[in-house]
Sequence to fold (526 residues):
Amino acid sequence: MQKHTSRTSRIRLAELVAALSIATDLAMGQPMEYVLGSCVLSVRLGETLGLSVNELREVYYLALLRYLGCNAGTHEQAALVGDELAMRTATVPVYGGEPSQFMDAMVSHLRMLHMDLASPDVDRVIAQVLLTLQNVMQELAAGHCEVGQRLASRFGFGESLQQALGQAYERWDGQGVPGGMKGEAIAASARIVSLAHDAVLFHRMGGVEMAVAVVKERAGTAHEPRIVERFCQAAPHLLAGLEAGSSWEAVLSLEPGEQTILSEEQFDNACRAIADFTDLKSPYLLGHSSGVAELAAEAARRCGLPEDDIVAVWRAGMLHDVGRTGVSSGIWGKPGPLSDSEWERVRLHSYYSERVLTRSSALAQLGALAASHHERLDGSGYHRGASASPLTPAARILAAADAYHAMTEPRPHRPALAPEAAAEALRSEVRAGRLDGEAANAVLAAAGHRIRTTRRALVAGLSEREVEVLRLLARGHSKKDIAGLLFISEKTVSHHTQHIYSKIGVSTRAGATLFALQHDLLSAMG
Ligand SMILES: [Fe+2]
Fold:
């Protein structure tokens, strides 16, 4: 992908990281904006402890990034515990409690998972799983921390924040993972954020009273007594407003220190990091997001899309599957056919992508494009079931690139298709009216296939979309009207118009109208 020098995305680092935190809520089996609430509390708590702006800044970003490594090892976890999201829903609240509470939660989860087994069998299976978990727990936690640290460095965060991320699951009493660090050896930011995550969770369950009771109970074990004391002294004030719903605006306005605005290059790097974060969800997905992004961007270039749209397609490709984090790795890795309810969950992943990305107004347009990647022209796609008209050329290209690339990757229920077989399958989607022919051809050409010339392309080499624009131009519609009718920007209409004029060798609307009449292009559209 080329470097971008002239775009003006103006994305704040805080906004991007806050959006990503919603994906980590999903991955941890927690309600959306749980992490945002804990960020607000962490900063408020840090302020009452007299932290400097730089220290508060570390607390702020650590709270948002705490679960950044959440997709690491989930495939292995799901193999042991079934739905790892359900397991996390059950165990996150008791992680800071007594070991017996954690064990009880795990046993209840496993009993539900194996409810079809007879009693002696279920006890044996649970004992085996617990033994295995005990052996791999440290490695899983270490992997989670390491991945979080490495991804954080790709967002540009420094050594201190990365170190604190490596200690996110340590406990004051030294019983945490992965290092068993103890007391003040654990970064102050990690001690504050750990308490805030517990407090917000129990505040949601039982208000200020429950939050205070649980945190007090964990003083000296999970949490530092001094921070517990300070929290309990001012709990109603510190938790104020957090029960009222969204913390999005509060988080964005709370950022300590100067706001960081990402350059185009930094934003691209962050998109790459989010792609890798996403693809860690299953070994079958490794490289999928970046592969789709590169393929879609090249196809967009071949279709003659404006440079801004090419960049958007590339970024949307990187981000399109971020919602996969909200669906269990057990489903992504299931070798057999999916049940109806599992399919329903799969269909939710593009909705989750949209929810994560469109929470930020700066990312909303990109998010809408990214989340359209499973839509089909005949309305048979998901999650909106959109029909052809709202699907822009960029969306059509992204859908074709995602479909083709996925077919060339192995999946648990089938091996990777050879390029020719994948190309034929893509063409059959076009014939069935589900994918756009021009978009599919461009994707196939970008993937190195020889493209058969279609009848439509014979009209002066105009693309299907250009014919649509030409018909509307010929019927006297303004560029603004055309933009509205085709759900594209006026800038894109101008770009298409210039292309059409140069391809058909005219310089006026009248000349274009004559061409459209001559070639019988006016019949299909009003
Ligand atoms: Fe997808």
Notes: The chain has 25 helices and no strands. The two ends are 39 Å apart (CA to CA).
